[in-house]
Fold this protein.
Amino acid sequence: MLEDCKNAQERWGGVHQLIDRWLDERRELLVRFIELKEACDADLEAVTKARIDGFSELLMDYISAGHFEVYPQLKAEAEAFDDDDALILAERLLERLGMSTELVLAFDEDYASPVRCQHYLKRLPAWLDRLAKGLTERFSLEDQLIARLHAAHAPQHRAPSEA
């Protein structure tokens, strides 16, 4: 029994670390987003391709980590706990996440090449407004995934007064 507990901690503790790292990436993404938005508001013509590329790269890394690392681990955890309700919810949420993924891919495509980036520079503030809405919804959906597929299975921490 102790060995099973240790194996579970190693397996799902790793998921917890993965989620923590991913949420740290989310915070960094938000910082870069705000910096880019403020730069656009201050002087759009001074916004460089390098700045847009740095943000876009971070955005693509975050989206990729979700799709290829975090979501599969969350689903595996729900499967391991035979949580069919969580898996059904996950499928619905992942479908909705697809919409914001398409938005991110379109942004990346518009600003990937130097020629297109210069052409679309005037559209950047509107793009950032669209991304703000899409990412707000995405983060909410991801938080629901984490809450239902991971936090529901995590060992409950007792309050110090219960110890």
